[in-house]
Amino acid sequence: MPPLPGAGAHPEAEFPEYAGTYRLEACLGSGGMGVVHLARSASGLQLAVKVVHRPYAADPEFRARFRQEVAAARRVSGAFTAPVVDADPEAVRPWMATLYVPGPTLAEQVKRNGPLAPAELRRLTAGLAEALRDIHRAGVIHRDLKPSNVLLSDAGPKVIDFGISRPYDSDLRTETGKLIGSPPYMAPEQFQRPREVGPAADVFALGAVLVHAATGRGPFDSDSPYIVAYQVVHDEADLSGVPEDLAELVGRCLAKDPAARPTPDEVMAALRPPSYEAAAFIPAQRRAVAVAVEGGEREGAEDATHVRGAVPHRRWRPTRGRLVLAAALLLVVAGVGAGGFALWGGGGGGPVAAPERTPEGEGAEGAAFSPWSTALRTSGRATPVCSSAGAGAALYCAVAGTGTARIDPADGRVVWSDRNTALRDASAPIVSGGVVLSAGPDGKLRAYDPVKGVPVRETGLSASPGSVFPAGSTLLAVADGGTVTALDGASGVERWERPLTGHTRPDFGLYDEASGLAYAFEHAPAGGSTLVTAVDAGSGRAAWQRRLDGMLTPVATAGAGELVLTEMNADMQTVGLVRYAPGKRSAARIALPFRLDEPQVVMGGDAAYLLGRGGSLLAVDTGAPAAGGGKAELWRLETGVGRGSAPVLGEGGHLYFSAADGRLLAVDTGRGALVGATRARLSGGKLTYASDLPAPVVAGRVVVGTAPDGSVFAVDGLEPGGW
């Protein structure tokens, strides 16, 4: 980061002392549209606060653009951007606060120290491609990627300044004849057809940024922006000085035709096999391998030794010799250990072909476990969704366009399957009352015999997500007006029907198996309070009902019948947790150290683990406020996942969640460290992403994930370092 300026004249010497509640401590820099200040949150978190210049604050068009910048930055907050903490686009001087990222911009780094070394350039290429992938996945086009908008942090590059970005579906258009952007890094279509600019324009800018990083100049260079614009549209890019191993890829990024440019995913794929400098480091469990030495064989020394339970913390960079050995071992594994995928069977049949096996591993307690992968999908691009009745129980999976199947979690064998290609959508099968409920051909829930896999009845209930809430052996359906109907999961017979007093259209957010209570909630129209009702799922009796302050959602239970709820602000960001004790009628509020977008929550004892949409994972002690003090935050971790599933807890103090590219990740809940990750699982050689991202299923020591390539796979949850 540039040094903080000292005292003296400044174009905005009269800048405000505060932006919202944040005291502005020092000026980090000034641009054409605003000034960026260093500030701190109430918890001491360092922030970079952008405050708009006074003349622009009075411009309605600029305010509209600033609102769009805030919205875009919030949509893409993740591992490769500076997450938005707070903003007020409607203030007298509009402002936006993001996490402060220590480190210089790429422009400053190149100016001070010259072009990047080849390894640094490769790291930058991988990081920026992944950043653009996540930005585009959020539906945003940056449109102004340039060296001064790339911060170089210890955790990799961060893309900032979404001032002229826009969503794909935005109605905001630039005025005719107004050039918006930085000519040396603009794509030809930004000059020729600015209203038709798409994600490929950001890839063109990526190519130009990489040329600058490699050479200290751009691919089109002139003191005149008009000449640069002409060169961008008509001339070939100057790639002299770009390392040979990247020149072809950078040249493709700079293609005149947007359709000829690679996607960010294809840029990342072109870097494979990745250099160890470019890859995100996840500690790998070390395994014993036979190494040929003079005079015979011996167990591999330090880098090949299997240290059970020990996860190294240092960054390991292999020598050329190690890479050659690793490549040879991979060839041996590929030639000897290749197995066939299990194919989707016909309706109601028995087991089908054996699933793919990965090399057998040894569990922490000596029991053998073989990871497996089974292909379920026969067509389309849907990701399977699965559920289980408990530890070690059968696994039931559904796939849109294919059907429902039972899988043995021990070995991935398909026990039975009901093929139903007419199935348009699929949600995880429901195990209730000894039967399996999954979507049928008419979009209704169909009940299956869990052993034989044959349909036993049609329920008449919609299979769409949220239409039926499973509460143990009872299914709850809510009608307009607040009437709840409870059906027996096994027989489908109505158990009870009654309105929930005070509710007009409640949602059920949580079922607690220990107490048999289902928790219904409904936000007040103005969002200032939430009506919460605890309902006995078996009888329909209301155990208690309270109106609590704030926009709350039940997410878990803790302690003796206490309820944990998330609290949102008016922008639908989660800002805190509430722990409510119904017996005492007391609510303890825990403010989060930063705001999270759409976090999914899992509880382990008093600890709540919140995984935000941008990949931020936060551990909070919900018992600290109730005990009268203590620090609520236990740890935080930037996982690097642009979009993650709901997290689940498993054995050995591990938390698991899935990424949109099919990876399964493991986090040590004791120290907040990423300790394992599987490979991405591609569909047809390309990354595909489901609109709904299924959570992994934990069945004892086995952790089951699903992927957009149509597979269901299992790994040893006790040994994530060996994934």
UniProtKB/TrEMBL annotation:
Q: Keyword check for Cell wall biogenesis/degradation, yes or no.
A: no
Q: Which PROSITE patterns does the entry link to?
A: PROTEIN_KINASE_ATP, PROTEIN_KINASE_DOM, PROTEIN_KINASE_ST
The record places domain Protein kinase at: 22-282
Specify the protein name. Protein kinase
Q: Which organism is it from?
A: Streptomyces arboris
Entry-linked InterPro entries: Kinase-like_dom_sf, PQQ_b-propeller_rpt, PQQ_rpt_dom, Prot_kinase_dom, Protein_kinase_ATP_BS, Quinoprotein_ADH-like_sf, Ser/Thr_kinase_AS, WD40/YVTN_repeat-like_dom_sf
Mind listing the GO molecular function terms for this protein? ATP binding; protein serine/threonine kinase activity
Alphabetized UniProt keyword annotations: ATP-binding, Kinase, Membrane, Nucleotide-binding, Transferase, Transmembrane, Transmembrane helix
What Gene3D superfamilies does the database record attribute to this sequence? Phosphorylase Kinase, domain 1, Transferase(Phosphotransferase) domain 1, YVTN repeat-like/Quinoprotein amine dehydrogenase
Q: Mind telling me which residue stretches traverse the membrane in this protein?
A: 323-344
**Binding-site residues, ATP:** 50
